[in-house]
Amino acid sequence: MGLEQRLISLESSLLALDIEKKQKTLRAPFSGYISQREIEIGEWLNQGSLVALLINPYKIDITIHLPSAYITKVHQGKVINVYINNKNYKAKILGALLSGNEKTRTFPLRLRLLKSKDKFFDGMQVTLSLEKSSTKDVLLISRDGVIKRFGKDVVFIIKNHKAKMITVKVLSFQGDKAAIYAAELKVGDKVVTKGNERLLPNQEVK
Predict the structure, then answer these.
(1) Does 169 map to a domain?
(2) Looking at residue 177, which CATH number applies to its domain?
(3) I need a labelling partner for 120 at 20 to 30 A (CA). Which of 15, 16, 76, 88 fits?
(4) How far is CA 126 from CA 24, 87, 100, 107, 200, in A?
(5) Model pLDDT for residues 76-95, shown as the tens digit of each residue
(6) Is it the case that residue 36 has pLDDT exceeding 60?
């Protein structure tokens, strides 16, 4: 009788240990690659702690920052062409985030790469081409030439030795350059890029 009780006790302990083992086992929601491990063997964790960064090679999401002139033209669900390492792929538009970058005046566009046998790595560069309903000539100037006045983007040009303030529309930034549009501007105008924050309209400039 004592051995039977001992057997029942050991079986209960084994069952409890098996349940505890299962509770301490983490299963990934998908098959992938561990790119970053956040814990060490034997380390205790709190509930919700980060264990590792797992990359899903079969579900590639792309984030591209677009200027406002383009972000309003995209349509959720549309399949477009993207280029990675000069190779063409198909990607589906998931949507655009409403919160943009105030410094670059761009908005994040989320895409999902359609199924491909190629391998991709986090941080790879992606380019794409979007159509616009209309085209117009734009000017490329130093981004230092664009400042804020009265809540608008403006540039100062020198005309007849005086400063003239012109409201512009910033289409995008490319490094230290800004692509702008203004009907009053033309190629050859002298744009002020230093000290323009202190200028006033019609102020004489030497």
Answers:
(1) yes
(2) 2.40.420.20
(3) 76
(4) 40, 10, 19, 16, 42
(5) 888 888 999 889 999 999 98
(6) yes
